[in-house]
From TrEMBL:
It comes from Shewanella hanedai. Residues 7-246 form the ABC transporter domain. Belongs to the ABC transporter superfamily. Macrolide exporter (TC 3.A.1.122) family. The keyword Transmembrane helix does not apply. This is ABC transporter ATP-binding protein. GO terms for molecular function: ATP binding; ATP hydrolysis activity; transmembrane transporter activity. The keyword ATP-binding applies. One of its GO terms (cellular component) is transmembrane transporter complex. InterPro entries: AAA+_ATPase, ABC_transporter-like_ATP-bd, MacB-like_ATP-bd, P-loop_NTPase.
Amino acid sequence: MGVDKLFEIKSLSKSFIKGKTEVSIFSNLNMDINQGDFLAIMGPSGSGKTTLLNLIGGIDKPTQGTVLYRGRQYHDTTEAELSAWRAQHVGFVFQSFNLMPMLSAAGNVELPLLLRQLTRSQRREKVMAALELVGLVDRKGHKPNEMSGGQNQRVAVARAIVGDPDILLCDEPTGNLDRETATQVLDILRLLNQEFKKTIIMVTHDPLAAQYAKHRVELDKGMIVNKEVVVAKDAVVTQEATAIKEDTAGMSGELVAEKGVVT
Ligand SMILES: Nc1ncnc2c1ncn2[C@@H]1O[C@H](COP(=O)(O)OP(=O)(O)OP(=O)(O)O)[C@@H](O)[C@H]1O
C-alpha cells in the first residue's frame, strides 16, 4: 500500500541566540511524517520537542534546512501566508488548554471560525458538531472555571478541530490531567485519527499517551535517538506488522491499527 508523506523534515537546524552565543537545539534533523500517522515525540526536558512541534506547525521558522508539507516549502513565505496555512491545516492542543476564561465552551470553540467567511448559523452548526464529538454539548454554556480539567481539554480539542484541519499538533495534552480524564482525551484523539483521518503529532512524557500513538520518536540533545512502531498492548501482531516493527530506520512503514488489531 502506498504511503503519502505529509511532512518531510530535511537537514533541519534550529538555534536561538542567548546573549552573544548561539545555542543549537537541532542540527541536521531528518524525518518524514506520513499522512494519517499518530506520532508521539518523546525525550527529556529541553531536548527540543516543543521547538520541533512549533516548526512543523509554522509557529517558528527553521534556522537552516526545510520542512515540506505535501512536497511544498511553506515556511519561506510571508507571516500572513503562513498564518493562513496554519488556519486551514493545523489545530493546536496545549497542556494548559489556553481557553479564554470569559467565554463559554461554545464561545471558545467558535473562536477559530471568526476568521472565516461563515454566517452565524453556519458557525453554530460547526461548533455544536465539534462539541458533540468531544461529548460536551450539555456544557456549551459553561465557562472554563465551571468545568473540570478534562472537560476543558475536551473543549480545547473541539476548538482545534472545529475548522476541520488535517493535522492536530498536541503539546503534552494529558500533562495536567489525571489518568481517567487523560484516557477520555486520548480516546478522542484516537477517534480523530482512526475515523476522521486526522494526522496527529503529539509531544508527550506520558507513557499512557505514547501507547495511543502508531509511531514514537525520541529526541535527545537535538538528535533522534530512537524510532519505533507502536504495537497496541492487546494487538494481534501479524508477520507483516512484525516486519514493519523491525524496519524502523526510515519511518516508512504504514501500520493500520483499528480497534487494537494490527493487520
Ligand atoms: N525562544 C527561545 N529562545 C531561546 N531558547 C529557547 C527558545 N525556545 C526554546 N529554547 C530552548 O530550547 C531548548 C529546547 O526547548 P523545548 O521547549 O523545545 O524543549 P522540550 O523538549 O519541549 O522541553 P520540555 O519537555 O521541558 O517542554 C531549551 O533549552 C530551551 O531553553
